[in-house]
Amino acid sequence: MAQVLVVDDSNTMREIVSTFLSQNGFEVAVANDGRDGLQRLQDDPAIRLVVSDINMPNMDGLTMAEKIRTELGNTAVRIVMLTTEDNAGMRARAKDIGITGWIVKPFRGEAVLGPFRKLCGM
Fold it and tell me: How many other C-beta atoms can be found within 10 angstroms of the C-beta atom of residue 20?
């Protein structure tokens, strides 16, 4: 049972983020796009935090987040976008969806540990 789901189409980025979080006490699951992320979230009710890229094939991160909120009806899971995008329009859409946070890559692990622990109830 994972606490955090890392969703990114980049194998390297998934590995960096998931390894860092695992080494710092988080149980981590991974998904390679939004469609895979939705399935993983449905399969593991223990997930408290989704950390997702936006630009991915099959289903982007914002669409996945919308589906988490609407189709799955899951308003409890926290969603943080980890992306190269820093677009005001995308941020506004994310806020409307109920995204908890927005982190612009590169990933700086030490800066997110406290907030991620809080979001996971640790």
Answer: 18
Structural domains counted in the chain: 1
96's CB contacts (< 8 A; 6+ apart) are none
**DSSP-derived secondary structure for 59-79:** S-HHHHHHHHHTTS---SSEE
pTM of structure: 0.94
The number of residues in the chain equals 122
Residue pLDDT, tens place only, 15-28: 999 999 999 999 99
User: In sequence order, what DSSP letters do the residues of 19-63 get, joined into one string?
Assistant: HHHHHTT--EEEESSHHHHHHHHHH-TT--EEEE-S--SSS-HHH
CATH code, domain with 73: 3.40.50.2300
